[in-house]
Backbone:
């Protein structure tokens, strides 16, 4: 199962709207086929593995319950069953109502011995975006914050490049590659004019770039428009966006617009994440800025928080990494559980995950 999990991880960020599943076929202690979900989500891992070897009498190790719904092709559960497998070892169940235990039931009905739950927690961690999308209808959010040791992301003059060192910046590109989309707010898009692409790590598939701009008042042209051949651009806006602004951006087929509900003077973060999930995205890597980070934290929509801390101080006049949250009680603060700490070159990486049972 460890090898199947490793295969599945290779497809993270490449298979949406489908999950990145790993599958191994083993007979008499020897691996006879291995596959992951193909880029773009099809063919599924099980189908690809069966195309590479005869499954009769073999054991299939699969990181997610094989799908049970029929489409243009037979379901993976049906294909595995008809292949004459002796056994299937499955890490976790698929909550999609079209499967949700039916894939396992179909295998057992065909006489295949099924073992469930092997390394389930690891599989659920790898597939967290897909699982959350299927159970809640929203994309999973990883919020990345890179700041000075006193929590600042820019000097008082706005200078921000570079607070962290090259090793941390390379890590950010690797993290972008593992997500379906990279997301920033309009302020970051205007101030930094970012590309938001994966660079310098030999990656050949780009995440979707998502920018939240209530009025669609973004620079045009910009680094984002100049790189539309490299990666798609999705813009989330509110009803206040003018017809001229909508026409300007929608004139390019490589740009996709989503009108989302607002909360006060900001886009509703939950409405944005539901819209993105409805369009097929399961995992979003948010890189700020401070106002967007605060709105996501305030709404309880940050599932993982990655902080990179650099060894310099910028002082109280610098720009804070998180905008105002309006808190007057510690008990109301968003709370996370430390998952990992390590050095990244001269900087420190902290990975925090939302504490699900925190009463607030």
Residues:
């Amino acid at each position: 199962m460890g090898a199947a999990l490793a295969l599945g991880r290779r497809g993270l960020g490449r298979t949406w709207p489908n999950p990145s599943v790993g599958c191994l076929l083993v007979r008499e202690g020897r691996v006879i086929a291995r596959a992951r979900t193909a880029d773009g989500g099809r063919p599924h891992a099980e189908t690809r593995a069966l195309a590479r070897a005869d499954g009769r009498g073999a054991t299939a190790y699969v990181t997610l319950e094989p799908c049970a719904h029929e489409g243009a092709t037979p379901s993976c559960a049906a294909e595995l069953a008809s292949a004459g497998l002796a056994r299937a070892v499955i890490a976790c169940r698929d909550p999609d109502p079209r499967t949700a235990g039916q894939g396992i039931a179909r295998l057992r009905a065909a006489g295949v011995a099924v073992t469930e739950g092997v390394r389930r927690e690891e599989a659920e961690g790898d597939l967290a975006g897909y699982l959350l999308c299927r159970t809640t209808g929203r994309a999973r959010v990883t919020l990345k914050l890179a700041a000075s040791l006193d929590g600042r992301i820019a000097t008082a003059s706005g200078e921000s490049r570079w607070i962290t060192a090259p090793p941390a910046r390379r890590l950010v590109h690797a993290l972008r590659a593992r997500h379906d989309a990279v997301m920033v707010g309009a302020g970051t898009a205007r101030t930094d004019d970012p590309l938001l692409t994966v660079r310098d790590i030999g990656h050949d598939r780009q995440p979707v770039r998502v920018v939240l701009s209530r009025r669609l008042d973004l620079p045009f042209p910009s680094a984002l428009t100049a790189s539309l051949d490299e990666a798609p651009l999705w813009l989330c806006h509110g009803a206040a966006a003018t017809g001229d602004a909508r026409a300007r951006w929608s004139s390019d087929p490589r740009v996709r617009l989503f009108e989302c509900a607002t909360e006060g003077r900001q886009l509703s973060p939950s409405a944005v994440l539901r819209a993105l999930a409805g369009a097929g995205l399961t995992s979003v890597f948010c890189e700020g800025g401070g106002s967007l980070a605060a709105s996501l934290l305030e709404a309880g929509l940050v599932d993982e928080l990655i902080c990179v801390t650099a060894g310099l101080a910028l002082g109280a006049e610098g720009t804070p990494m998180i905008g105002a949250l309006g808190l007057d009680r510690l008990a109301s603060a968003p709370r996370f559980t430390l998952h990992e700490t390590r050095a990244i070159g001269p900087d420190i990486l902290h990975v925090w995950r939302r504490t699900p049972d925190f009463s607030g």
